[in-house]
Write a structure and sequence with these properties.
The chain is of the alpha/beta class. Helix content is 37%, strand content 14%. The strands form 2 sheets. A 5-stranded parallel beta sheet has the order 7-6-5-8-9. Strands 2-1-3-4 form a 4-stranded parallel beta sheet, with helices on both faces. Strand 8, helix 8 and strand 9 form a beta-alpha-beta unit. The structure holds phosphoric acid mono(formamide)ester.
C-alpha cells in the first residue's frame, strides 16, 4: 500500500513541505552537478497512457539526474494495451517488476488512489484526468517564485499575489491543482473565459472580460483550448479575439506581470505569434522549472526517504 508516500494531489502536503521542496530546487539550480545520486541498478517507471512532451521528458530528465534508470511505457503502441490489456493490469504488472516508484499520466477512467492501495511503491501523478496535475502547478509557482521572492528560501512571496487562469477551466486539471495549491501557499486565483468553459458553482472569482482580469492579476496563465472537446471553428476565432493573449489584450497586464502557459500552445488561439517575444513571457522558464521541481520531488520523496 503506497498511498501515504505517493504524490497524487497537492493537498497531501503542507506549506513546510513545499518550502523545503523549493529550497531543494534552489540548491539544484545553483549547484546543478553537486550531490548527484547514483542509484545503480535501481529504476523508476514512466507510464504515460496519454500523450505528453514536457511532463514525460522532464520527468525522464529528473530521473536520470537523480541516478534512476527510466523504464518507459509511452502510449498504446507496441504494448499489450494494443491487445486489450487494461490500464490497471498494465500498472500492476509494471509494479511487479520492482521499480522504486511509478510516474503515471492517465485519464479519469483510472483510479490512481485505488492502484496505490494495491502496490508497494509510490505513484507520482503526471496528469490524471481532470483530477489534477500537481507537478504542473508546482512548476508554475516555482516560476512565479523566481520573479517574486526576496530571498532564496522565501515561501511568503506568494502572499497577496494574484493568478488569473484563462480558458477551459471546466476540463483543466492544471486549474484544479492551482485552486488547492493557492490555499496552501497564499496566492489568490481568479478565472476568465467564455461561459461554457467555466464550471457552475466555481469557488473562485470569475472575470467575464479578459482586460479586467489582466489588470487585476500579477500573473496570467492561458490554458490550452482542448480541440478534442470543442469542435466549433467559429468559436475558436472569436475566442482569440475575446480571450486570446495578444498585443492589444496584454496592454492591460502590468509591466512586471508574468505570462504563463502550461503547453502545448495553440498558436493563434490562446497566444498570438508575438507573445514569445514579450519580455513578460515565462513559457520556457516554466519548462526549466519543471525539471527542477520533478527532480526535487524525487529527491525528497524517494532518494532521501
Ligand atoms: N503541460 C503539460 O503537461 O505538457 P505535456 O502534455 O506536453 O506534458
Amino acid at each position: 500500500m503506497s498511498l501515504d508516500n505517493s504524490f497524487l494531489n497537492v493537498s497531501q502536503f503542507n506549506l513546510d513541505f513545499y518550502s523545503d521542496l523549493f529550497s531543494i530546487t534552489d540548491h539544484l539550480r545553483q549547484h546543478p552537478f553537486q550531490n548527484l545520486k547514483n542509484h545503480q541498478g535501481l529504476f523508476g517507471a514512466l507510464v504515460f497512457f496519454e500523450a505528453s512532451t514536457r511532463t514525460r521528458m522532464s520527468f525522464e530528465a529528473a530521473l536520470v539526474q537523480e541516478g534512476f534508470y527510466p523504464l518507459k511505457l509511452d502510449s498504446k503502441m507496441g504494448s499489450s494495451l494494443e491487445k486489450g490489456e487494461t490500464f490497471e493490469d498494465t500498472l500492476l504488472n509494471i509494479a511487479a517488476m520492482g521499480p522504486q516508484f511509478i510516474v503515471v499520466r492517465c485519464g479519469d477512467d483510472l483510479d490512481l488512489e485505488l492502484i496505490a492501495e494495491k502496490i508497494s511503491m509510490p505513484i507520482l501523478n503526471a496528469g490524471w484526468g481532470r483530477v489534477g496535475h500537481p507537478t504542473q502547478a508546482l512548476l508554475d509557482v516555482l516560476t512565479m517564485r523566481n520573479h517574486w521572492k526576496k530571498n532564496s528560501d522565501s515561501i511568503s512571496c506568494f502572499k497577496g499575489k494574484k493568478l488569473l487562469i484563462v480558458g477551459d477551466i471546466t476540463h483543466s486539471r492544471v486549474a484544479s491543482s492551482h485552486f488547492t495549491l493557492a490555499k496552501i501557499l497564499g496566492y489568490e486565483v481568479a478565472v476568465c473565459g467564455p461561459d461554457h468553459f467555466i464550471p457552475e458553482n466555481i469557488s473562485v472569482p470569475v472575470f467575464k472580460n479578459l482586460e479586467e482580469g489582466l489588470s487585476w492579476c500579477d500573473a496570467a496563465m492561458a490554458l490550452r483550448v482542448q480541440h478534442e472537446r470543442h469542435q466549433n471553428l467559429y468559436e475558436m476565432n472569436s475566442y482569440h479575439e475575446l480571450f486570446g493573449f495578444h498585443e492589444e489584450s496584454l496592454k492591460a497586464l502590468k509591466s512586471e506581470g508574468l505570462i504563463l502557459h502550461p503547453g502545448p500552445i495553440n498558436h493563434g488561439i490562446e497566444f498570438s505569434p508575438k507573445i514569445f517575444k514579450d519580455s513578460r513571457c515565462c513559457v520556457f522558464e516554466q519548462v526549466q522549472s519543471g525539471v527542477l521541481v520533478r527532480q526535487a520531488l524525487i529527491r525528497k520523496l524517494i532518494s532521501n526517504k
